[in-house]
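Database export, one record per block. Field names are fixed; values are copied verbatim from the stored entry.
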Amino acid sequence: MIRLLTLELRKKLKAPLGLLIRGSFKQTSMKIAKLVNEKKPRKLIAVGDRVSSNLIKNRIALDIAVIDSKVMRRPISPLIFEADNIFHASNPAGTLTEEAWAAVERAVKSPGRSKVIIEGEEDLLTLVAVLSAPNGSIVVYGQPKQGVVVLDVNEEMKRKVREIIERMEKKPKNALMLL
């Protein structure tokens, strides 16, 4: 089963799901470093190449980076991230595939640092990261042209994410070939 983003949900997801931190890459990274220092999350997960890269450059220790080697859908150089585990999956734009979902879950459950490399688009995997991460974790993702969004993983955030996923259109796996 794959899940497809509907037009209605696409509009809804343009708004940040959590705390939006505005500012330059340096400023947002400093604010995230402060939050991480205060909250000491069980896992720190970054979804997106730019946000992952900025956290790494600013010496913020990520547990998991979910990347697709693209920024704003334009190819970029692969992210240099020393990982103990590397997972690969396919996830076309606007979808959540079982394969990508499983890769994020494996990364969260694996000891050490993990990198999830997506062929396609990683944006919606923020939702999977929230559901897979233990409560007390932090998931961060970029909000295009606005800043970085910080999500505290707790039961309320998981409920919110489950509602979004439930509203996605469900298709059989072989529907990917028709997209």
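Remark 1: The chain has one domain: 2-172.
Remark 2: The domain at 2-172 is CATH 3.40.1380 (Pyruvate Kinase; Chain: A, domain 1).
End of record.
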